[in-house]
Amino acid sequence: MNRQEVLDWCQKQYGTQPDYPWNDDDAVLRHSGTGKWYAVLIHVSRKRLGLAGEGMAEVMNLKCDPLLIGSLRMQPGYCAAYHMNKDRWISVLLGGPARDEDVKALIDMSFRLTGQKKGRAKAK
User: CB under 8 Å to 44, separation ≥6 — which residues?
Assistant: First the structure.
């Protein structure tokens, strides 16, 4: 999926619009219930991602089940999460080899995971 396809799909699926906290083209998609980020679309140096070639790559960071991250990172189109907790987030190369259906499933997982509010223990 490319950037616009992701943004269009997230608008249709979750009713979310991107915000641009850094006053550039990098975007954040927030969960409507919690306000937490469920997707971050950013431009990163290919070198920092461990990818061949020069220049920048556009990736989407998604929160992910830690049990899936290792196997995803072995597939083309997936990298260690850039600038996020690498145990709980993954970077997906936008416009890359990952199948659209797989990317949508990961976005959905990220949306669900960021929608969970951590409960506090009640005082007795």
Answer: 56, 57, 58, 59, 82, 91
